[in-house]
Amino acid sequence: MPMLLIKGSFQVIGTQPDGDTVHFTPDNPAEWDLVGGIHEVKRNASGRGKLRLDAVDALETHYSRTGPVVHQPLPFAHAARDELLTWLGFTDVQRQPNETVTATTPESVPGWILTRSADIGGRCIALVGRGEHPDTSGTEIFVDVPLLKTTANHHLLTAGLAYPTYYRNLFPDLRAELTAAVHLAQAAPAKGLWPKDVTTRGATITGMSSLTTDVVILPKLFRRLVDYLNLGDPDLAGFPAFLAQAKDRYFILSAGHFTIGLDEVVKVINSKVQMTHPAEDLIFEET
């Protein structure tokens, strides 16, 4: 799979990194303009932009798109965030209560990314690597499974600290390797979040506190539930219709067909919400 290589460094002071987002500054900020797709990478005057780790969705530490800031159960959300920063090379990370980083050792660590596009919010969708890369920055290189295994994306899924969430740009061989890593983590005793995951077993939702302190579920489902509850009706009977209106577009691998609306893979019975397909069985389209 050809992807654009960009070399640079990671800095997190003044930001709120989580398990699947972190800031990155290219050695040559003009290389952001080489990123393909219909969306541009947003960056500040120094060239620093935000990354979204491709194929990885960690539990939310702070989500506020439709209301007050909320989070998923913090032990796992923080575990993914801390693992990512440690893997990149940061130690002694100091934070304010609102998750903003105030100090790290060192202040910056070298690394590289592999990318093909940015999302609608201007975050670069990337495979994330640490240290030095031998190839030339600003050029396309072929990404195979051995290279994928050197990334933070693969590491977090192997550690069982994040869910797989796939989009169409990721080639099948890379997706298959990530799914294999997920299945190994799921099969291991007490590995990461998986013993607590109730996405496909069914999560009992009695209000916002269920989502923030009790249930461990796919973050995409969490975000949809938060947005629905922020409309002011705690009755989940209307949640399937809400999902249909959101019109998420995705392909179900096991069924072999394209679908619109998460209501097709989410079942609601009284206060229990259950996905009928695991996350690795779905391939979403970017919006």
Identify the notable features of this structure and list them briefly:
single chain, 287 residues, alpha+beta, OB fold (Dihydrolipoamide Acetyltransferase, E2P), 2 domains, five-stranded mixed β-barrel, four-stranded mixed beta sheet, globular
Structural summary, described in words:
The chain has 287 residues and is α+β, with helices and mostly antiparallel strands. It has 2 domains: 2-187, OB fold (Dihydrolipoamide Acetyltransferase, E2P), CATH 2.40.50.90; 197-284, no CATH class. It is built from 7 helices and 17 strands. The chain has helices spanning 74-88, 145-148, 152-158, 172-187, 208-214, 219-229, 239-246, and strands at residues 2-10, 21-26, 49-53, 56-57, 91-95, 101-105, 109-118, 124-130, 140-142, 163-164, 166-167, 203-204, 249-252, 257-260, 266-269, 272-275, 282-284. The protein has a 5-stranded mixed beta barrel. It has a 4-stranded mixed beta sheet with strand order 11-17-13-14, with no helix packed on it. α3 packs parallel to α4 (172-187). The relative contact order is 0.16. The model has no long low-confidence stretch (mean pLDDT 96).
CATH architecture of the largest domain: Beta Barrel
CATH fold node name of the largest domain: OB fold (Dihydrolipoamide Acetyltransferase, E2P)
Q: Helix and strand string, N-terminal first?
A: EEEEHEEEEEHHEEHEHHHEEEEE
Strand elements, count: 17
Q: Total domains, how many?
A: 2
The largest pleated sheet is described as: 5 strands, mixed, barrel
If you compute it from the alpha carbons, what radius of gyration comes out, rounded to the nearest whole angstrom? 19 Å
Unreliable stretches, pLDDT < 50, 5 or more residues?
A: none
**Mean of the pLDDT scores?**
96
Strand order of the largest sheet: 1-2-3-8-7
| Number of H/I helices | 7
Strand content: 25-35%
Which structural class matches the secondary elements? alpha+beta
- CATH class membership of the largest domain: Mainly Beta
Considering DSSP H and I runs of 4 or more, what fraction of the residues is helical? 10-25%
Shape: globular
Distance between the termini: 22 Å
